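Purpose: get a first structural picture of the assembly so the mutagenesis plan has something to point at.
Setup: two entries, given in the order below. No constraints added.
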Amino acid sequence: MGDKPETLITDGVRLDGRKPKDMRALKIVAGFLENADGSCYLECGSTKVVAAVYGPRQVHPRHATLFDRALVRCKYDMAAFSTDGNRKRPGPDRRSREISKVSSEALSSVVFTEAYPRTAIDVFIEIIQADASTRVNGLTAASVALADAGIPMRDMLVALSFGKIYGTQDGKPAEVVAVDMDKPEDNWGLADVALAYMPNLERFVLCQMDGRLTHDEFRDGLEMIKKPAQELYKLQKEALRKKYKG
Amino acid sequence: MSELKTQSRQVVVPGETLATGLDYLPGNGAYRDGEIIRSGLLGITSVAGQLVKVIPLGGRYIPMEGDIVIGIVDEVRFSNWSVEINSPYKAQLKVADASNRFIDTRRSDMTDFFDLDETVIAQVIGVDNNMNINISLRGPGLMKIKDGKIILVNPAKVPRMIGKNGSMVRLIKEGTGCNITVAQNGRIWIKGPNKDKENLALKAIKLIEDEAHTAGLTERVREHLGMPKEKTGGA
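Result (structure tokens, whole complex):
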């Protein structure tokens, strides 16, 4: 994990030069894969994600079928080479099962599942390179892939993280709320929150937190993500439109 | 106050506001969220009077009553066949709907009529709430297919393939001399006088699929088929 840095933010500038309200550089490509019904490639700084959607299709195993709606199954996985090459062993583990579960639930509430009874919609999120905030970037990519697959949805899903990092301000120690955690901030920061949000309906479908935040800090964070969330949403729209405008 | 927030033929993503107020109605692909009509799909808008709908750009085929489908028999049972129709749901073909003739299931072998992997052009005659699909082969143009080519296109692009009142498919038929059946589930059957004509038709169909969302498509298809430009203003 490396050594703990002395400071994560100095006079309002983070380790990688960002301000507290800045996202990392973003790139979204819709229709990235040929075989999938819908797909998306997303870059957020050096976090790189591919999401693929298959379905609606017949449910296997059959006993998992829901008779009044579609089953949205999400599988989150980190590639064996996604971190430093030693830390992540290939295959499912406790952490990716948890993320798969919460992602499935988040996506189920965006999709009009009643439109396709007795079917499964399979979403695969593959983290190619991990630099923190992978679950939220995975969800952002998954929602583009779902839309690309022509699946009826209430809204897009914009997911991002914020957290609290330590550092100095004018020579004095300070704790600052910041948007879009990167690896050192996620590892050494004081708290981090993963959020998934429907930008038009203004509803949250995922909220997870590690560490501790005061009520005010949490409110600040929610306020801070509004602008970057709109930015992300705009990029999603552009990516989807671009696919059809050539 | 009611207001339209979009025009026809715009690409919209799920959740986008299409119109506000109660004077507009959400059509297919759109839904009402209180005072607002939102898109429920990635698609192209279409506004007709008060009706605002979104035409999908992709997605699986979902059967509807009356659709013509091309299916492949994937199971033969005692009194019916299970038919795969390029959809999340399988269709069922009952003996009563399989032929105009009487089929005596006790005396005849079901595979004599339709065997595994045989292809049929059928019509959807029933879809219930559980998405049990019934299809029939009793009707004009419905039959078992024994030769020709079948190609698969995106089911969302079938309407473009057919064109207004069947104009596009008629164009390809005239241009190539092939017999073509465009099924709602995205499968297209081509039967032509020779391989070259069939391939020409196939390429025209691929062209339509790739450029289905663009304007001026008919002209390009004409060009591809080597047909003269259409006279404008003629009857």
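Residues 195-210 of chain B form the longest helix (16 residues).
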